Amino acid sequence: MIYMDHSATTPVDKRVLNFMLPYFGKRYGNASSLHSLGQEAKKSLEEAREKVAKVINADPSEIYFTSGGTESNNFAIKGAAFANKNKGKHVITTKIEHDCTLNTCRWLEKIGFEVTYLDVDKHGLIDLGDLESSLRNDTIIVSILHANNEIGTVQEMNEIGKIVKESNAYLHTDAVQSVTKLPVDVKKMNLDMLSISSHKIFGPKGVGCLYIRKGVKIDPLLHGGGHEGGLRSGTENIAGIVGFGEAIRIGEEERPKVMPRLQKLRDKIIDNVLKIDNAWLNGHPEKRLPINANFSFRFIEGESLVLLLDSRGIEASTGSACSSKSLKPSHVLLAIGLKPEDAHGSLRLTLGKDNTEKDVDYLLEVLPEVISELRKMSPFKKDYGEFE
Fold it and tell me: How far apart are CA 16 and CA 32, in angstroms?
């Protein structure tokens, strides 16, 4: 199988797996225990915290381990909202956030908060003027996805950070898709909070973190024994955390070599797929993740395309893995202006460090054949007429 769905999840790097294995055996200690086994676990926990902090230019004390991106985004938005509700109840986000952010904001609306959902242009970029004009005295947090998980568009976080810094609001970004693929510096971006997920960077599932700048006022979501500085109670997943730390270290160390190679493969895919009739690229043509190529194909249905590709040995997706079983068109594609029928005909290809030019050549051989096959049996034929 040729795996081209790395934005959904990634295989655990063998080096990371080997690094984790002792923590399922002899190094099974609880980091809160005072004896030697516990203190060994505590030392490993803090070493992982240092690795994560180094990659994003943070202080280790500002890294709080969580179960992944969804918890981190909930923690940032709800935690800041609850802790600062006396100041205001206004939240700003965008229409193309991950579902965990959008559903968190919708839930806040149900309990009395007001949320502004910023529009995006046809490429998925917000208008910086819209952001500036949306900020109010009672705005408590702005949450904007760094790189979109579906179309790969990368927001101008440095500029966004400058704008939000002039207000009294906190700035949070979901960097789940961008860390180890793009340079991420919490200080240059003027970030107050940032979310990361391990399984998107060749680490284990079920672990991630939230960066919280010193001085940010935030309430915990979980209450218990006071782990993670009292902000995230629960016995730490030491095996997962050390794997996460090693994965982010390796990913950032190899980024200058790996990402340019993958970007060349991505560009080869884009250049050739756009030769197919009634096909177009979704997302910004330049300001996009080096691993992401998202297309729409008129007159076909995305789920059928993914299944046929799978039968030919290529694993891809038609949108976010978290909502892949939904029959609703992608909210991201609708937000950039696609019609529902065109949004249904999307394909997301996301590359990883194990993909080769041979993989891409096979994709480019198979994809036009599969699309032609689907169009011959398309139910849209009666509406659109012949299209070959």
Answer: 24
Task: Give the number of C-alpha atoms closer than 13 A to the C-alpha of residue 10, restricted to the C-beta side.
Answer: 29
Q: Three-class SS of residue 271?
A: helix
The H or E element containing residue 208 is strand 208-212
Query: Cα(274)–Cα(280) distance, rounded to whole angstroms?
Result: 6
Q: Which residues of the chain have pLDDT under 50?
A: 323-324, 384-388
Dihedral, 34, 35, 36, 40 alpha carbons, nearest 10: -40
Please state the domain extents for the chain.
Answer: 14-250, 255-370
Kindly list the distances between the CA atom of residue 96 and the CA atoms of 18, 126, 150, in Å, as whole numbers in the listed order. Answer: 37, 10, 9
Q: How far is CA 267 from the centre of its chain?
A: 21
Q: Report in angstroms the alpha-carbon separations of 214 from 111, 168, 186, 229, 318.
A: 28, 15, 12, 12, 39
Residue 209 known to be catalytic: no
C-beta neighbour count of 320 within 10 angstroms: 19
Quote the strand ranges of 74-113, DSSP E. 90-94
Sign of CA dihedral 213, 216, 221, 223: positive
* Token reading at 213: 């700048």
pLDDT at position 387:
46
> Against a cut of 0.90, is the pTM above it?
yes
Identify whether the C-beta of residue 289 lies closer than 8 Å to the C-beta of residue 352.
no
The fold adopted by the segment(s) 255-370 is Aspartate Aminotransferase, domain 1 (3.90.1150)
Instruction: Dump the DSSP string for 27-72.
Output: T---TT--SHHHHHHHHHHHHHHHHHHHHHT--GGGEEEESSHHHH
pLDDT of residue 378: 78
CATH classification for the domain delimited by 14-250, as one of 3.90.78.10, 3.40.50.2300, 3.40.50.150, 3.40.640.10: 3.40.640.10
52: exposed, middle or buried (Cβ count in 10 Å: 0-12, 13-18, 19+): buried
290, 263 Cβ separation under 8 angstroms:
yes
Query: Which residues are CB-contacts of 177 (< 8 A; sequence separation ≥ 6)?
Result: 7, 145, 146, 147, 148, 149, 152, 200, 289
pLDDT value of residue 388: 43
Query: Residue 31's pLDDT is what?
Result: 86
| Active-site option among 100, 105, 209, 322 | 322
